[in-house]
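Module 6 notes. Inverse folding takes a fixed backbone as the condition and produces residue identities as the prediction. Think of it as a translation problem where the source language is geometry and the target language is the twenty amino acids. Below is one complete input and output pair. Work through it position by position during the lab.
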């Protein structure tokens, strides 16, 4: 009788062990994430409520939401960087997405030398951001820049233009460099997505007499919609946080005309060594990205439900 009674206990233990095994396997990863992701976030929020300028240790202390009040009421640079950041992210990502899709659409066709063309198209993605900035700063140079020479030969300009002399042309320059750098990411992602679309759909559309634009908007884009949403979201986050290319090209100038929020946070942190204020700016930047990402994902889901 005792052996029979012990069998349900053994079975229960095995079932419990089977249920706990996935969590035990995930435990190291969860602990790692908590230590190296969630704790720094919490620490930044705590630091954002303190006056913590490294060079003024006697003034360290808790000041509540004073840093946040200062950001929204007195910091004119913050307001300027918000609009600069939105312009930088929106224009860059839109052009990267459109040109990346067009390039992927072309490279997805079968033609001689397609492998070489694909390799060359992905080359900019392998170049470091600082190196991209240096290359494009030389290209956009006023005296010896290739860009000015090309525009003069095309008859678009009559004399060399100083592309880094004012905020508008400097913003155009860094966006142009960023678009060149980011196109391969979209091209690679869209190539993978386009290759997964069944050829039967295109053959059926061709038999039904569908035009190329109709096939594009009725088959191709809806089939890779999830990829478009994911890639644009990821690239928006990366562009929002990018500082290497801007520093190497304009260093945020002239007159802070190309200073994005991420660059402003970095200069406040490293230049002024004001850890408390920089932390408050970081918290706001994180909240902005979370809200925009949430709205974008919800919009993408609503659009997908509308198509279905």
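Target side of the pair, the amino acids:
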């Amino acid at each position: 009788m005792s052996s029979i009674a012990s069998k349900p206990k053994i079975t229960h233990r095995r079932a419990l062990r089977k249920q706990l095994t996935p969590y035990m396997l995930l435990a190291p990863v969860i602990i790692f994430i908590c230590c190296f992701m969630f704790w720094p976030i919490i620490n930044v929020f705590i630091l954002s409520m303190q006056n913590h300028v490294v060079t003024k240790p006697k003034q360290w202390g808790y000041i509540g939401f004073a840093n946040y009040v200062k950001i929204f009421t007195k910091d004119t640079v913050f307001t300027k960087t918000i609009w600069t950041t939105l312009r930088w992210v929106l224009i860059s990502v839109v052009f990267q997405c459109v040109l990346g899709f067009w390039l992927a659409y072309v490279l997805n066709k079968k033609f001689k030398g397609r492998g070489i063309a694909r390799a060359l198209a992905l080359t900019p993605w392998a170049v470091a951001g600082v190196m991209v900035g240096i290359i494009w700063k030389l290209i956009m140079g006023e005296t010896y820049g290739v860009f000015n020479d090309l525009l003069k030969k095309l008859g678009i300009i009559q004399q060399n233009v100083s592309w880094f002399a004012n905020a508008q042309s400097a913003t155009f320059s860094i966006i142009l460099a960023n678009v060149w750098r980011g196109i391969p990411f979209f091209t690679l992602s869209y190539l993978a997505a386009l290759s997964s679309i069944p050829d039967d759909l295109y053959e059926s559309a061709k038999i039904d007499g569908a035009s190329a634009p109709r096939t594009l908007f009725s088959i191709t884009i809806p089939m890779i919609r999830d990829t478009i949403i994911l890639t644009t979201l990821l690239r928006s986050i990366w562009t929002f946080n990018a500082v290497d290319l801007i520093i190497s090209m304009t260093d945020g100038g002239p007159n802070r005309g190309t200073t994005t929020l991420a660059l402003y946070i970095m200069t406040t942190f490293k230049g002024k060594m004001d850890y408390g204020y920089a932390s408050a700016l970081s918290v706001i930047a994180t909240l902005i990205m979370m809200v925009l990402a949430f709205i974008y994902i919800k919009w993408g889901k609503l659009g997908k439900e509308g198509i279905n």
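Reference fact for the lab report: The chain has 13 helices and two strands.
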